[in-house]
Amino acid sequence: MDIIRVGENHYDVATLTDVAKGLLSDLQKVEGELGRLSLQTSITNFAKSSLIEKLVAEVANLPTVPAPATEAPAEAQAAQ
Description:
Layout: E1 3-6, E2 9-12, H1 18-59, H2 74-79
Antiparallel strand pairs: 1-2
């Protein structure tokens, strides 16, 4: 007998309605997709970190320039 937990209650899968079985199937698909997206996000974040490290190393010996001045918000410029 397969048993699932929904909220605080447990149910025998064989007694689920067709609608409940369909919802359970959809939930399993969504959980699978979330797992896939989580893995993809981890891989993408690793690639980003690696690229940043390589960029920092690549520009380490280049001359630097002063940071550009930030512009004041439009409201502050109007008040001046």
